[in-house]
Write a structure and sequence with these properties.
CATH class of the largest domain in chain A: Alpha Beta
Mean pLDDT of chain A: 96
Structural class of chain A: alpha/beta
Number of helices of chain A: 15
Strand content of chain A: 15-25%
Largest interface: A-B, 63 and 63 residues
Number of domains of chain A: 2
Oligomer: homodimer
Helix content of chain A: 40-55%
CATH superfamily of the largest domain in chain A: Aldehyde Dehydrogenase, Chain A, domain 1
Strand order of the largest sheet of chain A: 10-9-11-8-7-12-13
């Protein structure tokens, strides 16, 4: 069987599974999730052994220490996957709710009803825990899932999916509801991304290179975020202690993630007071490398020079670009030009400035007097997230269970025909 | 300036216009719409002359009578465009509404706010009235629009867009809020469809060939419907007079449109009674060509033979495929296999059957005891539609003003940072 036929078969099986998943009750889905969680714990040795084989091959292939760390499944990470599934079982089922309802003058009753998307494909890299997390969220939202993880994690992923099959199957999980693409042929991604009618949505998770490669070839809708270039704008009317606390948190609390601040914009009226505070707290105490524009370096000459590249940079590291701006309009322009439509914050007590910022900045999430680090499914109260979207359509920001659903119209009549 | 640079410039101008449009009040947008409507009426001779030039070239190029009819702008069609804009001015502004709001335990207030999409590109064929309709809907929803109509309608489209520029501009319409792509280079569609960051959504309207060509190359999200293969399933528990009335309406009221019925599915228990009724009313009285499967032709031998191709056919004509099925499950399977996710109806008084059909059929709109012909923005109460979607994401079924918006999160804090 060639690659194309193999992927078509996976797609057909997923479509059939999606139809059966759509009919499962919430209670049944939760029973499956809990059974899989139990079995993950019971199988922790077997999963650990599979992961050890992956780690051995990866070490032999010369993967970086960071990659190896992402690939590693410790006992606590396996127990964490099980806990994640139990948490998902506790979340509200998004399927079946009535979003709106209205009656037309001719008596037709129109219901807009929340339904599963159908078949979701997740492309990701070395983290095997994504396998359990994504499968759990798709199952709870009654979607069939096609998983394509990094080849480094293949043995681990097979072991995890095998647990879904065995433990889930015994509780009524439809066959093929959770499928893993086992071929390491890179072209599988292209074939899957062009399978209109069999795949309804692709969520690629990983580096910008992977995501661009998917978007370039896809005919199926893709929801993604390329980068997180997040900003904090400190206004003339800011509480500077609050601003400093927010900046420190946004930059330093976890610098390697997509919702960390990469560029600080400071109103020129308070730059002489605020930038030395930033230099002391972030630069000296927290060892952040600051790169400023001319105006910033005039105030704090010890900063390195920021170039055009810095405004576009997603450092994911203890580095921060700093720019002095004349007003909120200039801050908005900077963010809309260089930002990534992810998360941006204003610190200001001025309501006119807050409103201008919230309306003018085009990002998925705009914060007023809070850290950008809250863009996260858990922090938003969604319980878990399947990813973060910087796209404009369907889902923006953290994507939880509800974002894994769509709607259909069900129209009730008593014989209405169109005049 | 090459094609690529020309399209990039149009995209940059659209992005700038979208930012300004997002700040317009409802009152201002309505004033613009009404001024454009007045000026369309005042310019009817000029638009008529431009259209006459298009008609002359098109007749010379040997366009079909149907194409020429779509291209023609009579006085009443021009007045119809003006009325359409006045109707849109009367519709509720979708922008700015709060979709939901919640407060987190740490005090963060999360608002999910309805916002414009940004830049919408509409690709369409010979109908110049789409130019005014699409521009009006995009303006009311605060989106900048890039219009790419058929080359046959170029002079007409230029005259219409010129009215938006002149009359709208005098009332505060941002420059470049409504742009027409004037080049007839077919590659313009590819370039526009790959302009991530400058174009946020593409809505192609036209034949399946145009739409597939867009999807094949697009990196920007596309919302579309390829085909309308709509079904009516007449159940064993149907009121057969109601069923006949619905079938006649769904097939004959306007056979050339996407929400007309193309295949009739009949439960075998009532086929002997119902198919002769269909033959008499649709076949004999309304001159519909019926093409049946073996079981149908056993009952009405005068039917032609239906082949596998007929189940996939979008006739857009007075032709109907007919199949006898053993139960609602078989009807659902047929529809999910051959249908186009558009609009499908069940006629039954049995609530179990109704529920199974509504849940099992995957289409955007499912009707219970009503004609498929109601899938239309006006009939749904949206006032007007920019198109119909058979996709799963963002919008399904008729797309009105609300479907031309998306959302963002605005999060209010008082200094919250992440622990």
């Amino acid at each position: 069987m060639g690659l194309h036929e193999e992927m078509l078969a996976i797609g057909d099986q997923a479509v059939a599974a999606a139809r059966r998943l759509a009919l499962l009750t919430t209670r049944k889905k939760n029973q499956i999730l809990l059974a899989v969680a139990d079995e993950l714990e019971a199988s922790k040795d077997r999963i650990g052994e599979a992961n050890a084989r992956d780690m051995e091959s990866a070490a032999g292939a010369g993967l970086s220490a960071a990659m190896l760390d992402r690939l590693r499944l410790t006992e606590s990470r396996i127990l964490g996957m099980a806990k994640g599934l139990r948490d998902v079982a506790g979340l509200k089922d998004p399927v079946g709710g009535i979003i709106s309802r209205w009656i037309r003058p001719n008596g037709l009753e129109i219901l807009k009803v929340r339904v599963p998307i159908g078949v979701v494909a997740i492309f990701y890299e070395a983290r095997p825990n994504v396998t359990a997390d994504a499968a759990g969220l798709c199952l709870k939202s009654s979607n069939a899932v096609i998983l394509r993880g990094g080849k480094e994690a293949l043995e681990s992923n097979k072991a995890i999916v095998d647990v879904f099959r065995r433990a889930g199957g015994s509780k009524g999980l439809p066959p093929h509801a959770v499928q893993l693409v086992e071929t390491t042929d890179r072209d599988a991604i292209r074939v899957l991304a062009q399978m209109e009618g069999r795949v309804d949505l692709i969520i690629p998770r990983g580096g910008e290179g992977l995501i661009r490669a998917v978007v370039d070839v896809a005919r199926v809708p893709v929801i993604k975020h390329y980068r997180g270039v997040c900003h904090v704008y400190v206004d003339a009317d800011a509480d500077l202690d609050m601003a400093l606390r927010i900046c420190e948190n946004a930059k330093c609390q976890r610098p390697g993630v997509c919702n960390a601040m990469e560029t600080l914009l400071v109103h020129r009226q308070i730059a002489r007071t605020f930038l030395p505070m930033v230099w002391k707290r972030l630069g000296e105490e927290r060892r952040v490398e600051l790169r400023g524009d001319d105006a910033a370096r005039e105030i704090v000459p010890a900063m390195r020079v920021a170039t055009e590249e810095d405004w576009n940079a997603e450092y994911l590291d203890l580095i921060l670009a700093v720019r002095v701006v004349p007003d909120v309009a200039a801050a908005i322009d900077h963010i809309n030009r260089y930002g990534s439509n992810h998360s941006d914050a204003v610190v200001s007590s001025n309501e006119t400035v807050q409103r201008a910022f919230a309306q003018g900045v085009g990002s998925a999430v705009v914060y007023i007097n809070a850290s950008t680090r809250f863009t996260d499914g858990g922090e938003f109260g969604m319980g878990a997230e399947i990813g973060i979207s910087t796209d404009k359509l369907h889902a923006r920001g953290p994507m939880g269970l509800e974002e894994l659903t769509t709607y259909k119209y069900v129209v009730h009549g008593d014989g209405q025909v169109r005049e």
